[in-house]
Amino acid sequence: MNSLHLGASWLCLDWLLVIVLGWLLVGAAGVLALHRFALVSRVLFPVGALLGLALSGVALLALLGTTPEVAVLPIGLPALPFHLRLDSLAAFFLMVIGAASAGISAFAAGYFRKGEGTPPGLLCLEYHVFLASMVGVVLADDAYSFMVMWETMALASFFLVTANHRIPEVRSAGYLYILMAHIGAVGILLCFGVLQANTGDYTFGNMRAQSLSPFWGSIGFLLAVFGFGAKAGILPLHVWLPEAHPAAPSPVSALMSGVMLNTAVYGLLRVTFDLLHTRLWWWGELLLAIGLATALFGVVFSAVQTDMKRLLAYSSIENMGLLFVGVGLAVIFSSYRMMAVAALALTATLYHVASHACFKSLLFLGTGSVLHATSERNLGKLGGLIRTMPWVGWLMLLGVLAAAGLPPLGGFVSEWLLLQSFLFTTGLPVPLLTMLIPVVAALIALIGALAGYTMVKFFGVIFLGQPREDKLAHAHDAGLWERIGMLWLVLGCIALGLLPVQFIQLIDPVTRQLVASGLGAQVAASGWLLAPNSLEQASYGPVIFLLGILGSFALAYLLVRWFYHGRMRRGLPWACGFPWSNARMQDTAEGFGQPIRQIFEPFFLMKRDLPSPFDEQPRYRVTVEDHFWRWLYLPIVDLANRLARLFGLMQQGRISVYLMYSFVTLAATLLAVM
Is the CB of residue 575 less than 8 Å from the CB of residue 581? Predict the structure, then answer.
């Protein structure tokens, strides 16, 4: 091992480095077996899944530990080695990365096909370098190693997004993604430059020791929000996300949406609660405003999508907005020294990190199975697939219920905890905050309702009703490896829903590290009931709720079986008096989205193609676009093109002109020195 520890050897950090090395070796083996598809898919990806499972287990042991582990790896520049640190915050995110990647890698073993874009061995290398770099980001304890791992993560994911690089739209999505990733990286680099406070020491330990003034602390915080917000897809830096996620292969989309976006939340928590000692209340207000706008924007745009992967991509924007709202609440409470309530808000945020990793990865994997079985991403050409794809249908139903925030699954617990956090805003000493934050809570409830509406549309249009295309009758169900990967993530959704008390106890060391308070002992005292505040104020019993649901279904089944069996007369549905009903007469994705388009019309830039009364086959088409493209990004592109043309005038191709430029530059430099 090339690590220098301050303690005993072969601690959890050593094992994590062994796992990272194992992923890199798996990727290298993929390059050696570049076109040996069976070896890559049936051996290397399952090995990668086992390493992800091991990562989650080792991180869990580290989370249960008491002291951070540190190491120095002499693999950087001579004066800039890699400093690593494994503390509770890092261990929690590593546990989520490992658990989610295990299911995604198992699914990938059965998903990838021959002849699809990048050779399978090269895809294996990019995939596992992507995983290793995310672990490196979380373990980094200095700005140099953090930025190296951050850029490696961006480049590896760029090559994965552009796996089908022969398609122009895929290349465009990849270029947009890497551009936004580099813009965000500049913000993060400048943030670290502020935090080191002109000491020249870019280790996180030195940054923790600095006491920045409120002004410079605010500058560092704003740069962190910009840099990590670009990776998380918050407004108005979200434009890459609905383009890149649909363009990538489905396992890559699952990794990016369910896992990579969480590294941005990790970075924001690391800077705000670990490296910065001062927290101002308006920082939290800013995060609340950004998160609320992002969540509402994401869920509204998700509700009107007709491409199933774009729908999930906008849903990820919504969930990132909710996470920023949770962080904002924690900042507000901690700025007023209300640490117990800040711990509640952080617990809700971290719970949603894990829950989102499970259900969003599951849904992206399910869309991959549907895409392979039907060659369709357009919701308007799907339908009735639960008959031909029952495994995918039932597993995705559980993911949809979790994404909709319904009990007794994990998505409900995290959103319920977040709403519980808002109940304590009446104790804030600022009347303006006391008045505004309940309004935010009401909007969070609206966002949750719209998310449920969107998930009903997503599942119903794909799996229920009649097939909208004849070829759907020949769709095949997911293979064994795909089922294993999806089933693993379903188990995660169920465990997070049924065992919230135990999972909150795992989160307790993280909140104690960040705000010196936690909920572990309090929730443990209430047994199987989840009572984050007190039993008198609010409590939730997931097992009791599940037993109630199962009992209701059993009672309904018995009543129908005993009292109505044999008494029913089956007949054709009336269908509003029209006997020749077909798939074209059932609800479409456009029909589901029409009320949202009308209610939230200012959100959209809509283009309507109206048919002529004389058209033999009239078609009405509505295209929904993003205002931010027209308001912000197209003017920037136009300015960049103008500047490029202006500088292009300087390129005359004559050596005398270039020598004149050099002479003028040299003369100006000498004058400036004098």
Answer: yes
